[in-house]
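Possible regression after last week's pipeline update?

I re-ran a chain I had predicted before the update to compare outputs. Posting the input and the new output here so someone can diff against the archived version. Not blocking, just want to make sure nothing changed silently.
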Amino acid sequence: MVGAPNLRAGRRYPNGKCNRLVPAASCRRRVCWQNSFPLAKRFSADEYAAGILAGNRMVLSRAITLVESTLPSDQRLAQQVLDQVLPHAGRSVRVGITGVPGVGKSTFIEALGLELLRQGKRLAVLAVDPTSQRSGGSILGDKTRMNQLAAQEQAYIRPSPAGRSLGGVTRSTREAMILCEAAGHDVIFIETVGVGQSETAVHGMVDFFLLLMLAGAGDELQGIKKGIMEMADAVTITKADGQNEIAAKLARREYQNALHLFPLAPSGWNPKVTVSSALTGRGVPEVWQVVEQYVQQTQQSGYFQRRRQEQNLHWLYEAIRQGLEEQFYAKANVQAQLPALRQQVIEGSKSAFGAAAELLSL
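New output (post-update):
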């Protein structure tokens, strides 16, 4: 690529110079990339693509920040980067993971992630943290909760704020997934904020949808009522250890019976229910075995590729919808008349439908 940087020019510790405020002896970096990529420099699309394809984590992080940006200039550059790396994406297994708050999503993901690394896989975790509706801030604590996994060379964890989107699954989440695939990660986990917010969006983005549930917490009926179990390719009862182990096994039987009530999915796959304990590690490898069985079965039937194609079309229409919405609100006459019409709707002197029709006719 034209203008691609020398990705192996970084110097090893302790001989290399680094401007990080960390003693060289205690720094975990094996290679210092400060000489190759000065942080003040704005990369070109070729430099971004070269760094991502070389597996440079710092360039990957900056590229994800770029696709999350709402600045028009950043969006144009991000699209150029995505166009270059797209032929190298799509080779991973995409797994969506959701569950009720307190089910132990981060702990389970860390346990399963470490198991995948032992199998020689490269893992990327896109963890979405809730955003405060008042302050607009996010704690972004998933990486802290997965400290063992975050320290591994073959794992990449990217916490992101949910923003205004329900469940935190937005266009940038899908674009970040594409970038991680191009960087060589063959397994992608997408962790949602929690049950009942945006499981449909996650389901439309991944190959396998995993639902984490607790035993004895009243989730059996709630899971069925919310329709979440209809989307699940597997259900895992977490925290199946100690005194909770018997309750977890009973819950497994109840969930398995409940899943038989649903019609067969288009994939032809019968959802499985397992029990696991991130604390002891029991049942964690079996979860990944279920994922592999699903991938093998759907690839043989052709459903795996058809679903990917359907998802691509869905995101095409979603991108069109978002683009039209942005263009609409960017119009000067819309911006000029919207405040007055909004006030009329608030006062009840004009219906919301009438105000919308008037704005759309501009």
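Follow-up from reviewer: compared with the archived run. The chain has three domains: 42-88, 90-315, 331-361. Marking as no regression found.
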